[in-house]
Design brief:
- By secondary structure, this protein is an alpha+beta fold.
- It has two domains: about 160 residues, Rossmann fold; about 210 residues, Isoleucyl-tRNA Synthetase, domain 2, CATH 3.90.740.10.
- About 30% of the residues lie in helices and about 20% in strands.
- The structure holds zinc ion (ZN).
């Protein structure tokens, strides 16, 4: 005999339809709420209750809502509805971010870079585009069942909003919370704009990694007992970004590591003892004779001369120096890297050199390489180093290099 399992279950009986049919049902529910003016009615009924104010971080008005917006708005809607039911008055003022490069980029794409639009006309088009997208997203949010004071939404382009921003900023400045300083940021020479960390994508790039000799000019009297003089004594740095060499002001060692002075034919080179095989392999040197060993701390504040600019490069120490690659003597350009910038702060006498302009061209600070694009400078600097004898070795490698996600 076949059992009818349905009879063994104690199911509730309900008038709900078997199928939810949400695409139709939700529209009906929304229409009912609109009819009842649900939000305004709710606010009226909460009059006099303690306020619960949630500030809405605004979505950006440049396209349709995506699933991330939906999650964000639904969670906020849960909070608003539950707080109102839990004894508070919890208004919901929706906002939109209507400023910024993505909107401008869309308008440049639409009208062309040289459309002949005046700046104010271009701004008007941007505003129009932003407002269209606000209207579109507002409809999509409402369709999610999210409630709020839609008639009083805030847009960052509204004059009263901008005026308040200035007021708040002024207040912060008066209280001494605002200061001006420097730090390196990623920069796209194509878009000519700074890039946030989130706007960087890493991809494989081929490059020439180079081992460069920096001639010692002040050894604190510690090397000449072994070398006789400083005519041919060098620290060897390693880098994958040749174009940043004009920004070099220092060579960074790890204070704890052991560094060895090696004799190579008629010259002396200093590298981290543990990385000798790296250098031997790259430079195709069979033998390097160890002469003396020092800690990084002992070598600190020796001075070298920049391989092609009239500038000193100071030997400094920092914890970020590792033995993963290179020579343990790190090319340090505070204008080009956050770690370099941070470590150079410990040596206030070091200048902050940024020899590249906003279009990605070398400036006069780069000497004879002024005017070259960074990619062109890579080749030209390599040639110069070869000619001057400062290039110990070069290796063609694939490395991870930051790229602008926009272009
Ligand atoms: Zn870009």
């Amino acid at each position: 005999m076949q059992a009818d399992y349905k009879d063994t279950l104690n199911l509730p009986s309900t008038d709900f339809p078997m199928r939810a049919n949400l695409p139709l049902k939700e529209v009906e529910i929304k229409a009912k709420w609109d009819n009842e003016e649900l939000y305004h009615g709710m606010m009226k009924s909460r009059e006099g209750k303690p306020l619960f104010v949630m500030h809405d971080g605004p979505p950006y008005a440049n396209g349709d809502m995506h699933i991330g917006h939906a999650l964000n708005k639904l969670l906020k809607d849960f909070i608003i509805k539950s707080r109102n039911m839990g004894g508070y008055k919890a208004p919901y003022i929706h906002g939109w971010d209507t400023h910024g490069l993505p909107i401008e980029n869309q308008m440049i794409k639409k009208h062309g870079q040289s459309s002949g639009l005046s700046i104010s006309e271009f701004r008007n088009r941007c505003e129009q585009f932003a407002r269209e997208n606000v209207a579109k997203q507002m409809g999509q949010q409402q369709r999610l069942g999210v409630i709020g004071d839609w008639e009083n939404s805030y847009l960052t382009l509204l004059p009263r909003f901008e005026a308040n921003q200035i007021r708040v900023f002024g207040e912060m400045a008066r209280k001494g919370y605002i200061y001006k300083g420097l730090k390196p940021v990623y920069w796209c020479p194509h878009d000519e704009t700074a890039l946030a960390e989130a706007e960087i994508e890493y991809a494989d790039d081929e490059c020439d990694s180079i081992f460069v000799k920096f001639k010692v000019i002040d050894d604190k009297g510690m090397l000449t007992p072994y070398t006789g003089n400083l005519d041919n004594v060098y620290f060897v740095i390693w880098t994958t970004t040749t174009w940043t060499l004009p920004g070099n002001v220092a060579i960074c060692l790890n204070a704890e590591f052991s560094y060895t002075l090696y004799k190579n034919d008629n010259e002396y080179i200093i590298i981290a003892t543990e990385l000798i095989n790296n250098v031997k392999k790259a430079a195709e040197i069979e033998k390097l004779a160890p002469i003396a060993a020092f800690t990084g701390a002992e070598l600190e504040r020796m001075k070298t001369t920049h391989p092609f600019l009239d500038r000193e490069s100071l030997v400094i120490v920092g914890d970020h120096v590792t033995l993963e690659s290179g020579t343990g003597c790190v090319h340090t350009a505070p204008g080009h890297g956050v770690e370099d910038f941070a470590v150079c702060k410990n040596y206030p006498e070091l200048p902050n050199v940024v020899p590249v302009d906003e279009k990605g061209r070398m400036t006069s600070l780069a000497g004879k390489f002024a005017g070259l694009k960074t990619t062109e400078a890579n080749k030209a600097i390599l040639e110069t180093l070869k000619e001057s004898g400062n290039l110990l070795a070069t290796e063609h490698i694939n490395h991870q290099y930051p790229h602008c996600w926009r272009c």
